[in-house]
Amino acid sequence: MSAGNLTRRKIYDRASRVVFLLATLLGVAALGILLYRILSDGLGWLDWQFISSFASRFPEKAGILSALFGSLWIIGITAPVAFILGIGTALYLEEYAKKGWFTNLIQVNINNLAGVPSIVFGILGLGLFVEGFLFGRTILSGALTMALLVLPIIVVASQEAIRSVPQHLRNASYALGASKWQTIRGVVIPAAFPSILTGFILALSRAIGETAPLIVVGAVTFIAFVPSSPLDQFTVLPIQIYSWTSKPQDEFRAIAAAGIIVLLIVLFTLNATAVYLRNKYQKRY
Amino acid sequence: MSIIEVRDLNLYYGQHQALHNINMEIEANSITAFIGPSGCGKSTFLRTLNRMNDMIQGVRIDGSVKVVGEDIYESRVDVEILRKNIGMVFQQPNPFPKSIYENITFGPRLHGITDRNKLDEIVESSLKAAALWGEVKDVLKKPAYGLSGGQQQRLCIARALAVNPQILLMDEPTSALDPISTAKIEELLDELKTTYTIVIVTHNMQQAARISDKTAFFLNGELVEFDSTPVIFQNPCDKRTEDYITGRFG
Ligand SMILES: Nc1ncnc2c1ncn2[C@@H]1O[C@H](COP(=O)(O)OP(=O)(O)O)[C@@H](O)[C@H]1O
Ligand SMILES: [Mg+2]
């Protein structure tokens, strides 16, 4: 090998290192600038008045209370519904369903659904829950639509988690005289749980940030009460934030930033809970 | 009296016949070793004795396997009770990702024991029977994965004993272990045979010669010869057995 060739390889080596570093820094920098702008714009407006007030035409009176509660209501219903349906489906497909064309068909559909644009789920929700079941333009319709939206993600993540539980653990359980359900409950679910939880929380984080499907099923932007039942009208954080950014007064831009901070806090809390729970269950044995 | 009686047993994986017309009687409170080259059907045969083959798709069986006089392939047999009665220890130690304590109590809980004192008692007696109590009695709540390979395998033996089986099936239980751990388990088996009937697959002929009362030699899915261990190793009837134990193939 010639000396020139060697130097060239070394140059490529260095250059690629620099390129990848730059790529990483670019992402970090963009995130940093974004956070800085949001915090510097919004922190001044983020006070108790903002948290505890309803939406208003007047910047100094505007608050996020109804949107915050709207988001919490949606998540509060979406989470258990999607969790139970998602794990149930994953367990059925992995542990019970016979491999065959029908199972394959379901599997392909679920994988595809995970990539369907969210607005399509909104239209489904409008047809199914708002008009079909006559739930109307309510929290319930919105939450069930969101549950459908995140269901494929949860199913796929749970399936992978269940599949990665080694066969020899199942055999150990069967050899002790466990039934199939005892094996699933006592061995498979506990071993898969940390990964299932991770997929679940990621899916929920997505649900919190979604707007399109909720607009289709009828979330409104101006709500001056705290929803008290699943059959109430509602708005959610991202929709409220969007409506503020499109207002003419400049103050609303800053108020939107304050809203974004609240949204981020909700997201971080959710993710932190996930990490905590995962570590706790991983440490348990 | 023989506790296991196998008559004219054939087993097929789909089209492939893995066991050919096996006949065997296994005595209670003895150690029976299965030897033979890899792929000859030792594990397959062992799994027919507690119906672990049920789990594999496409397996078909004919002939009969009687345990304590009852044909275990009859439809009225409760497989869960059968497996409780016939414990199994696998080649790779496979403790659950739980604490040592929970590993032992997993089986008893399956079968309805929830009383705390009773479970404590079972944990102690099973670990003692598996010669592990002294090493782990202060760390029962610690993860089983923290134990060494040899300790994990003895934990798996203790876990199997915790449901109070009559028979213990072991599929190359020491092949993943170092010589010291292996010696400990061999010593243990000699004690266990006073209470349990042990059937052990081993790839190690010296091990079979050291620990077993009777030895079965398998080849290509057939039971070539089954006799008391000294006869098999010193005076086999079949030419193929002699060739195998003298190391001419395998
Ligand atoms: N799950 C299975 N599916 C299909 N064939 C199998 C399976 N397990 C084992 N076999 C086949 O059955 C024969 C006996 O295998 P095995 O019982 O594992 O032998 P041994 O334990 O003596 O090494 C081999 O030919 C093997 O390929
Ligand atoms: Mg084998």
UniProtKB/TrEMBL annotation, chain A:
Domain of life: Bacteria
Signal peptide extent: none
Annotated localization: Cell membrane
Transmembrane segments: 18-39, 64-93, 113-133, 139-162, 183-205, 252-277
Xref: Pfam families: BPD_transp_1
Membrane topology designation: Multi-pass membrane protein
Gene Ontology biological-process entries: phosphate ion transmembrane transport
Molecular functions per Gene Ontology: phosphate transmembrane transporter activity
Name under which the protein is recorded: Phosphate transport system permease protein PstA
CC per GO annotation: plasma membrane
Alphabetically ordered keywords of this record: Cell membrane, Membrane, Transmembrane, Transmembrane helix, Transport
